[in-house]
Every structure is written in structure tokens, then in C-alpha cells.
Amino acid sequence: MTSSPRHFLNTQDWSRAQIDAVLADAARMKREPIGDALKGRSIALVFFNPSMRTRTSFELGAFQLGAHAVVLQPGKDAWPIEFDLGTVMDGDAEEHIAEVARVLSQYVDMIGVRAFPKFVDWAVDREDRVLEGFAKYATVPVINMETITHPCQELAHALALQEHFGTSDLRGKKYVLTWTYHPKPLNTAVANSALTIATRMGMDVTLLCPTPEYVLDERYMGWAGQNVSESGGSLTVSHDIESAYAGADVVYAKSWGALPYFGNWGPEKPIRDRYRHFMVDETKMALTNDGVFSHCLPLRRNVKATDAVMDSPRCIAVQEAGNRLHVQKAVMKALAAR
Ligand code: CP
């Protein structure tokens, strides 16, 4: 683990003390949002995919600390970028990441990157080439705004749980990360991240998914295993809804595509359609220990979770989304101070 990482690519690269310091600073800035810690600084927010929360919270967070944010969407309002070395660039890409990252580093103090998997070949997608390309060539800190993990969401989630339980010590809480239905195969990023931060916080984590094919990539299962050995929590994989929900303090829902079907999604569709009943509903939540529910958003109501679950006072998804603003400000401050 790096003692003072240059970038914020994954929470796993940062020490527990660094994570705790960011969460504490975020909580402080939630009470006092306006400051000048980034006065005169700037950040480029590079979006290869759509966003509502991430874009808004980063732009406003920079503004509230005196910095300026520039949003770029390569292939839309900025030139398409090539990431592979040695490519004869006679396709759509007009410039190479080797120039893009270094040029942006001449202008701005930080670069945020959102780049989802292409959903064709997981072996390629799991290399996280876009984020790693920026991190390799940029001479300023790079922030992961969601690629194959979503570390900013992790921090917002952790802060929301700490607020809900009234303590920064989440050890001993039963935490269920449940797969839920969605008509399309989605990114595993938030699931990877939820597993990472929940085990890091020492909770007793159950990964509930329809079949073994929906278990997450071995890298993130490995991080979770490493985390429980350090934090004293636990990790269980379950395909049984009732026992997984029983006594849960936290239910976190996310839908994702089964990794073995990357690039050949046709056969996965009938499998996922058989598990529509994984949708989070009142009956399942009644099995919990008066548990709290959350989701990273956006969420399709009555597909991933019912109206009653979303409108329940036990749902903290909106509070978690609000926390994105505060934790990202704390991350930008921490990186700018290095
Ligand atoms: N949760 C999240 O990252 O939301 P957006 O996709 O709207 O940014």
C-alpha cells in the first residue's frame, strides 16, 4: 500500500488513516461548505460516459473551494483519444493519451476521469486502460470518477453509514451487498467498490447474487479478503435471499452483468430475467434488523427497488448522493496538499 499515493484511483491504494482523514474532513466541510483551500486551482473533468451526480458535485465542489472546473467529453466536445501504444492512428482518434494527459497537466492541477468498461472483453476492461493511461502520463493527480471501480461513491457511502449509525466505527454491522434486477447488464464498478469499502470498514459482509456467475472479479474479491483479515470483518457469498437479509443492518443494492458473459450477453439475458425477484422490496427489508437501504443512483424504481423502499425513512440513497460533494472536496484538498 502506497504511503502517499499521487492519485486517487482506488481507496485500496490509500491507507485506512488517509481514508479516515478524508471522511473527517468531508464531515467538517458538510457543516462549513465554503472555503478557499483550492483558491486559484483548477481541475479537468474528463467524461467518456454520462453523469448527473458526479459532474454536478465535482463542478460545485471545486467552485466552493475557490477552484475552477473544466468539463471535457472526448468524442463529443473534445477530440477522440487513442490509449494503446504503437497504434497506427488511422481510425477515429485524433490524439494520443500521451499528449492529452501531459497537455492537460500544463493547464490544470488535477484531472478527473470517468470511463466505463466497453462490455466486450472483460480481460481488456479489467486493465482500466483509460484511467491508467491518464495516471501514467499526467504530471498532476488523477481522480477516478468511475471506471471499473467508483471510489468517490465508496467514500460517500461510508460517510452516509457513519452518519446513520452515529459513529465512525462500523465494525460488527451486518452488511448485504445485493445484486438486483436491471434489464441490461451494468458495470460492476459500484459493486466492486461497495465490497471494498464495506470490508475495509470491518463490517460482516454478505455478497448476495443469483448464481456463482455473478460473483465479482477475483481482484476485488481478493481485496475484500485482504481487508477482512486486516479489519476483523467477514465476507460470505450467498445465493439465498432470506438468510442473507436476515438481521442485516445495511442493504446496498446494485445490478451488474455476469463477468463470464462479457462480449456475449445474449445468453445472460434469460438468466438475469429469472432473477427479477431480487428487486429490493418491503418483504425483504422486513427481514432485516430495521436495516438501512442505499443505492448509488441512478435507480429504476420498481425494477431495482420498490417505491416503498425508496420512499422509506430507512432509505439513505439521497443523503449518500449528497455526500458526494463533501467527500470529493476532501479528496481534491488531500491531493492538492501533496
Ligand atoms: N452515482 C453516480 O456516480 O451518479 P452519476 O452517474 O449521475 O454521476
From TrEMBL:
GO terms for molecular function: amino acid binding; N-acetylornithine carbamoyltransferase activity; ornithine carbamoyltransferase activity. It is found in: Cytoplasm. Pfam families: OTCace, OTCace_N. Its main location: cytoplasm. Pathway: Amino-acid biosynthesis; L-arginine biosynthesis. One of its GO terms (biological process) is citrulline biosynthetic process. Belongs to the aspartate/ornithine carbamoyltransferase superfamily. AOTCase family. Homotrimer. This is N-acetylornithine carbamoyltransferase. It comes from Luteimonas granuli.
